[in-house]
Amino acid sequence: MNVGIIGAGTMGIGIAQVAATNGCKVWVYDANAKQVETATVGLEKTLTKLVDKQKISAEKMTEILANISIAAELKDFKDCELIIEAIIENKEIKTKVFTELENYVSESCILSSNTSSISITSLGAELKKPERFIGIHFFNPAPLMPLVEVIPSLLTEKTLAEKIYNLMKEWGKTPVIAKDIPGFIVNRIARPYYGEALRIVEENIATPEQVDEAMKTLGNFKMGPFELMDLIGVDVNFAVTTTVYKDYFYDPKYKPSLLQQRMSEAKLHGRKTGKGFYDYSEGAEKPIPQKDDALYQQIFLRIISMLINEAVEAKRLGVANDEDIELAMQKGVNYPKGLLSWGKEIGYAKISETLQNLYEEYQEERYRQSPLLRKL
After folding, report:
1. I want to staple 308 with a disulfide (CB 3.0 to 4.6 A). Which of 190, 226, 343, 360 is the partner?
2. pLDDT for 107-119, tens place per residue?
3. In what order do the strands lie in the sheet with 82-85?
4. What are phi and psi of 25, to 5 degrees?
């Protein structure tokens, strides 16, 4: 298959690596030509490390690199059968790229976006052939993270989702089909992991390191919310939250954090800038949290209850089937368990009681329960 990738950032070159590894001929384009060169040099280094670790053979590395070509302009995608866009999260910029692409590609070429939060329907609606447009959302780093959300729009041709689902399986991925709602499955359900953690810190209930420690020790999460935001990029995480909040017509459940906004403004973006919630400069020591078992239990129960409530609401609204909801959170963001089964384990009554107590304390819609939660 001939595949075009638009955007040579970490995600774009990662998707290119996945496609090239699976025998596709890949063309990579970026408006910044220098970025494509930087990305391909970086890919070569990554593959060399994999060869050194005996994860792939030297022959496989040569084959992967031979499968990737640099596209000087969008016209170079004329022979592509599938194009995946992975550029800035801006609807106007993405739409402009897709409408130009339609002038060059064949009638049968599938156009897709790797957007994490912009409506697939709104992106596809601007096209001459919206039925060939679909969301294909990989998770970072694309070569390592198994999950891919396949998102048909209201205008997508009926059999296309299944076709992409099967292609992702051929590429060794774990695909799930999601409704075209803000945040799809993962970025919708995962919002409280960050939002409620930020709220706890904003209210001086606990420090970032205490919240992270609570979620890792009591929930077996690989990374705490603040470590994860620093890895993703505080600015990126804030942008996704803001998009989901706006797209849900300012539902208080998804209200962004003022602390996160200020950190974004200060360019305290996490690992990529050397400082976020933690200091990543050379010689900097990570603060040791002051252990408090009762506080840790309170933090864990508050955040996990919000997460489980979101998963239950996604089930109620048919965002995806139960199996895909569970798979998505485990394979997309490395949650230790599926949230629906976690709810059963803790007891849905306990989750309901926790949310009711928060609702009574704060008198905020943020803590309203899914109508389904009380019935489970």
Report:
1. 343
2. 999 999 999 888 9
3. 68-70, 25-29, 2-6, 82-85, 110-113, 133-138, 147-152, 174-177
4. -85, 120
Closest C-alpha to 39, from 72, 17, 62:
17
The one-letter code for the residue type at 312 is V
149 tagged catalytic:
yes
Helix locations, the chain, DSSP H: 10-21, 33-52, 58-66, 91-101, 120-124, 160-170, 186-189, 191-202, 208-219, 225-232, 234-247, 258-265, 293-316, 322-332, 339-346, 348-362
* Amino acid (one-letter) located at 283: G
Q: Which two tokens stand for residue 360?
A: 């009574």
CA 168, chain centre distance (Å): 16
269: annotated active-site residue: no
Work out the percent of the chain whose per-residue pLDDT is above 70.
Answer: 100
Catalytic residue among 85, 117, 149, 237: 149
- Which is it for the CA torsion 202, 206, 210, 211, positive or negative? negative
Structure tokens belonging to residue 211:
């919240």
Among the listed residues 113, 137, 213, 310, the single catalytic one is: 137
Predicted pLDDT of residue 104: 97
Q: Is 63 a catalytic residue?
A: no
* Predicted confidence (pLDDT) per residue in 101-157, tens digit: 999 999 999 999 999 888 999 999 989 999 999 999 999 889 999 999 999 999 999
Cβ-in-10-Å burial (0-12, 13-18, 19+) of 371 comes to exposed
Distance CA 327, CA 97 (A): 32
Please give the model's pTM, rounded to 2 decimal places: 0.91
Which residues of the chain have a pLDDT value below 70? none
Q: Is 305 a catalytic residue?
A: no
DSSP string covering 149-204: EEEE-TTS-TTHHHHHHHHHHHTT-EEEE--SSTTTTHHHHTHHHHHHHHHHHHTT
Residue 65 to residues 1, 19, 73, Cα–Cα distance (Å): 16, 11, 20
**Rounded Cα gap, residues 4 and 97, in angstroms:** 13
